[in-house]
Amino acid sequence: EHCQQPVVVMLRLVLLMVCVTSALGAHTLVLVDTLATRETHSIFLKSLQERGHEVSVKAADDPSLQLSRYGEYIYQNLVILAPGVEEFGGALSVETIVEFVDGGGSVLVAGSRDAADLIRELVTEVGVEMDEEGAAVIDHLHYDANDDGQHTLIASPSAGLIESEVMVGPRDAVPLLYRGTGLITDADNPLVLPVLRAPSTAYCYNPTQAITDYPHATGQNMLLVAALQARNNARVIVSGSLEFFSDAFIMASVQTPQGAFYERSGNGKVVEALSRWVFMEEGVLRVASVKHHLQGESEPPSAYTIKQDVEYKIKIERLEDGVWKPFLANDLQLEFVRIDPFVRLTMTPHPNGVFSVNFKVPDVYGVYQFKVEYNRVGFTRLFSTTQVSVRPFTHRQYERFIECAYPYYASAFSMMVGVFLFSLVFLHHKDSPPKHKSE
Amino acid sequence: DTTTTADMGRGALVILALLGASSALSPSTYLTPGDKERLKLVLDPAWSLSDLAQVLYASAGYKHLGQEIPNIEGVCNFVKSSATDGATVETLFLASSAGKALGCPIAASSASVQAVSDAIREGASSQELFHAVTAAANLGVDLDTAKVLRATQMALKKDDSVLSLGYAFHVGAQLKGEVGSIFERIEDAIVQADEVDGRILQFEGGLSITALVLSGAYKLAETTNKVPPIKPDQAVKFANYLMSRKSVQLSKGVYYLLEAVSMFTNNKFHVPVAITLASNVAVSAEAPNIQVRVTDLEGYSLGPLKVTADSATRVSDEVVIISKEPLVPLSAADGVYELDVMSRGPHRGFYRLVVSVDASDSRLVGHTDAQLTFKVLTAIDIQGVEIGTADSDQSTAPNLQKVTYPNTLPEVLVADQHQRVMLRFLVRDTASGRPTEVHQAFVKITHIESKREIIFVAETDSNDIYKFDIDVSSSMKEFGGVSGVYSIELIIGDASISNPTLWHIADLSLTFPESTIPSSPQDYTYKVRPEIHHVFRSPDPRPSTVMSTTFTVLCILPLFLLLLIWVKLGVNISNFPLTLSAVLFHIGLAGILALFCLFWLQLDMFSTLRYLLMVGIVTFFCGNSMLSNIATKRKENA
């Protein structure tokens, strides 16, 4: 039996590892126009596989396509590298993809100058509009030397990237290659994030036609890559360029008209970072535990009383390389809310991922919530509420022996003493003999 | 339905237009050094020597790429050790082919010769026959042509797919003697190729099948010394397909691609010619020559050729600037020919160059009507720049100031909602000296503080003068009603100008009426919200201690006064009856009062009432009894 035990332990370990890897092994469906895309985008697809994705590459009009079976999604991630698809095959449609996003699925869509209406319709559903057919992003000041002449191969400065290391990785100065259409988003839509803005001098128009109408997208208002993080934390990336993700662009060198030369474009790092983000490998937070109690105690009371000192602790974890690790930030805030927030304080982080704060319960009783809402660019929306009731003082908890009330105390006691003495005297007084009076 | 057909029609038109624009039937690319480097990278993992097939693909691929194989001895030993006695025919095929490619042919043992001979039997598939025949040829085993042919015919009867035919061609190519029966089947295979976009021919099944059939067909044709039934334009379309698959990422695909490409560069019948631009797509006064590279698919020169530019046509207006001009061979680079374009005084723009090669070598295909695109760049300058403001109601003449590139107006322009901001300029082509229109003539106005930018398009009038004119009050929406200093920058860009320009012309201070600024609530999405600290209600103000002490004393004073007066009056309690009831009554009364004190200090209402009941009852009866005693006594005394 002793000999068998290590075997059992080993088996358990193996099982555990299988569980861990299968948790990582998200099923990813990649839709392509032609299977040659598998070769032109091999670096991107290979990086997905290396990160544990179960990648299935299928033609976008494959009649056997389906995202869900028996009401459950068979894929967690969908990559659409098929700008030319006129109609999806099988059970796939714009509606099912939108449902997929509603169900929490991640989607990456790449378009092109000649993207089909289907792709345009799909990206409109996530708040992004592709410029009209034939229009290409043009920049006469930021193009790459390998451009075919129309200045549509943009060497977009990395300054246009969103300021979020979680989404696009550490910042460097290498430009990104881009050839495709421009994206237009509503600046008032907070859920759509500008991942890569076009340079100020760029515009989107048909390069072979003179500009007669105002271009739909110009300058920094035009996006090259946009991201959506929906309210259910589902993530979508939309790019107007299929080639942005291609091996050719990832491996290419960049030479700008200003003479700067870069051995490799910045596409590789950004594509890697973006795909990690969109497929929920980066920027994912969760609440591990919430504790609240009076200061100096460890268990929460049934109700707090106004003006009590309370301590709130929340443990937050962040997914890093498939493992939940403590999260650190110095801008996490706790709100103590009764319809409106009465208290909002920044919490102190600790290395073990616990954030704590001490505060005094407001002097207004009612039903309150401890509310932590952390919504930052690149991270999943963190939301935690815990309801507690706050009651007023009981009659014994008020202040006693108030100094300025001493006259009242004194008069009451003097009255009581007076009553006692007076009753004694009144009942038992013996008049002196009247003879004294007659004298 | 009518709309969909119309859409489809439009789609077809677009595709046709694109095709027209891209190129005519001639390979527009070849295996560049970059491509070769990438293909080599795909093959490299084979040198870990774990898979014999990979080693074959890599060895043969390296040979085609002209690369030196690293650790060739180790690779040879690995290949030799794979071909042991008892190895399958397929292994023998792989090992012997790899050995051949590596230049270390493996020796044939009697067992392997026997295995190979046995594999050539009726009933074997054409792939098995291909393996056996190739292994036999590599090992130097003599074959009975008639027997192989019989077996091949049997195999083709069983399976006449393109793949099977492809293997059969390779079998036939390695046989000695009459193989016409297989050669006749080439046509059967070629007709099955699918045409894509009118410029690509491929077999269903992709790169490996297409490459296998092609190399097999040409090798077989060379063996039989007959022209294969493949038309020159078909050869070009096949070549186009192979070039479209340069990006292949599987070592097997690389192997087949390189086999087919090298076959296309070196056979007796068809050698597709790749005509590509060697120079930059842009031609300008500094670089007046357009250079054309004429190579085979592997990028090697085809020797001295007569290269002619049939025509060079401006895309925008079909003006022909060159027709039937010979290109001059460049001495510095083999296979590169050049032509001075700028000496023709072309206008700037995109040109379509049609190039043909006079082929003394009849094998060359796809060498005529190759379309290339180049563009002529000229420099522009911006002249007559005037910027200023004017009143909206045009009551006064506009106040315009001249600025010259690249200076910035020294003073800040000032405008409010009653004024217009105006900018006029002329873009002049320095080559022709005439005004010209450019694709991009934008005015970018940036709020310096918030970096928010608004872009306007400048439009030309009939005199080709660019004008930009905004009414401050009507463009309030674009500016968001935000007052402040804005920078005005002019962007002039075009694909065919050599000096696209971003010029900071002036700064502009805009003032919008205060009330129009929409007060939107601060947006805290993704941001840290301001902290809120609850303000506790402050306690009511209380009188000072002196005051309360004074009044406390004043409240107690009457009691002392009473006692004092009583003492003076000689108050006594001599009538106190020494009865139990009297004593108990007074103790009870004191108890009740004490109970009230306790109630104040610590007891709650209910316990107080309980105690009060107990003490109260006793006190009541005692009091009753005492009072009646006193009353009786008083009556007696009276």
UniProtKB/TrEMBL annotation, chain A:
Membrane topology annotation: Single-pass type I membrane protein
Tell me the InterPro entries matching this sequence.
DDOST_48_kDa_subunit (IPR005013), OST48_MD (IPR055459), OST48_N (IPR055457)
Example GO biological process = protein N-linked glycosylation via asparagine
**Annotated Pfam families:** OST48_MD, OST48_N
Its transmembrane ranges are 7-32, 406-427
Pathway field: Protein modification; protein glycosylation
Q: How does it assemble?
A: Component of the oligosaccharyltransferase (OST) complex.
Family membership: Belongs to the DDOST 48 kDa subunit family.
The protein in question is named Dolichyl-diphosphooligosaccharide--protein glycosyltransferase 48 kDa subunit
Source organism per entry reads Cherax quadricarinatus
UniProtKB/TrEMBL annotation, chain B:
Q: Which residues belong to any copy of the Ribophorin II N-terminal domain?
A: 31-264
Its recorded name reads Dolichyl-diphosphooligosaccharide--protein glycosyltransferase subunit 2
Q: Which Pfam families match?
A: Ribophorin_II, Ribophorin_II_2nd, Ribophorin_II_3rd, Ribophorin_II_C
Topology of the protein relative to the lipid bilayer: Multi-pass membrane protein
Its pathway is:
Protein modification; protein glycosylation
- Record's InterPro entries? Ribophorin_II_2nd, Ribophorin_II_3rd, Ribophorin_II_C, Ribophorin_II_N, Swp1
Q: Which residues form the Ribophorin II C-terminal domain?
A: 536-634
The record's subcellular location field reads: Endoplasmic reticulum membrane
